[in-house]
Amino acid sequence: MSSTSTRLLVGFAAGFLSHVIFQGALGAGLYAAGLIPSLTWSLAPVPPFGVPRTISLGFWAGLWGVAYAWFEPRLTARFGRVLGGSIFGIGPLLGHWFAAQPLRGLGIGGGFNPAMVPIEIAFHVVFGIGLAVILGIGLSFSQPSGAARVAVKQ
Prior knowledge:
It contains 5 helices and 2 strands. The protein is mainly alpha-helical. Strand 1 (45-46) and strand 2 form a beta hairpin. Helix 1 runs antiparallel to helix 4 (117-142), helix 2 packs across helix 3 (81-103) and helix 3 crosses helix 4. It has one domain. Strands 1-2 form a two-stranded antiparallel sheet.
């Protein structure tokens, strides 16, 4: 598999896992603190295919992970791994506010509930951080080991 396709595949997995692990952990903490009404993990089916909500959101997070994998070298070079991931995490938030919610008939930003805006920002920044961390780990495992690189060069 080429390095680009490996990078994009690892990016998809990183996005999915960042949603489940990082956003899920933040959501569990916010739920325990009484700041959100329900846990972020949900097996409730969502239309049109009846896929569990967590799987559906994980799929979309995976697609954002592919985009991040594409832009990651430039973001990391300019801002560093964690800050670059945090900055990228704002992209899905803007997509959520200005595309997904209006398409669902909720208006831009879903009306921008003042209590939810900082929570939504936190979810997406944490998603970006998790994406950066998991992609970095995943790409390090996808590289050949030092011994394998030496053997290939000879």
